[in-house]
Amino acid sequence: MSTRTSTSSAPLVLHYTLRQCALGQVLVASTSKGIAAVLLGDSKSVLISDLQQRYPKAQLDTGGPLLHRWSDTVLEILVHPTLQHVVPLDVVGGTDFQRKVWKALRSIPPGQTRTYTEVAKAAGQPQAVRAVASACAANPLAVLVPCHRVLRSDGGWGGYRWGLERKQQLLQQEGAI
User: Fold this and answer.
1) Residues 6+ apart with CB under 8 A from 100
2) Is residue 147 annotated as a catalytic residue, yes or no?
3) In what residue span(s) does the Methylated-DNA-[protein]-cysteine S-methyltransferase DNA binding domain sit (predicted)?
4) Residue 107: C-alpha distances to residues 14, 37, 85, 102, 117 (Å)
5) Which of 66-70, 110-114, 173-177 is predicted most confidently?
């Protein structure tokens, strides 16, 4: 997983496409290095607005040479989340702590869950449980960085940036619940 901060001198160009899946609309955006965003929602215009807000200085273009193949893989992962797929990721932005959390989330196997406390420990800051929840909410890569696999310590759902129904559906697909 490639990561970089938003202080790079080269202008950020994001190519994006909108697709339909069982979870609703999905926006997949990429740089030339890999997938930078997977956003879920019900409205194409809201998803494009979300991408613009996340990357206000980026130049947004539809399509792109590798995007079609990568978006096909993302759709396959959304349908079969337990299959292991390798797609290049190019995480743009995020704080150091958020990137540690996102890395910890990627280590949670399909069909398993962790608590926010366990993720905080895995990220090296066991007291930062609320910050883990915030990092999950800021995650730009739905399903590829599986924040849906994080539950409250009491077994409750907690939150999910893209809606609790989607979180439940993903966990059911994976056999985690």
Assistant:
1) 123, 124, 125
2) yes
3) 96-176
4) 26, 19, 14, 9, 15
5) 110-114
Long-range contact pairs involving 154-160 (C-beta distance under 8 Å, separation at least 24) = 158/116, 158/133, 159/133
Question: Given this model, what pLDDT does residue 108 score?
Answer: 94
33: tokens are 């290095």
| pLDDT at residue number 4 | 52
Which is nearest to 105 in space by CA: 157, 40, 138, 149? 149
Distance CA 87, CA 89 (A): 6
C-alpha–C-alpha distance, residues 175 and 156, integer Å? 17
63: number of Cβ within 10 Å:
9
**pLDDT tens digits for range 50-89:** 999 999 999 999 987 789 899 999 999 988 877 767 789 9
- Indicate which residue of 14, 145, 147, 151 is catalytic: 147
Q: Which two tokens stand for residue 159?
A: 């939150």
Alpha carbon 82 to its chain centroid, in Å, reads: 16
Q: Which range has the worst mean pLDDT, 3-7, 42-46, 151-155, 172-176?
A: 3-7
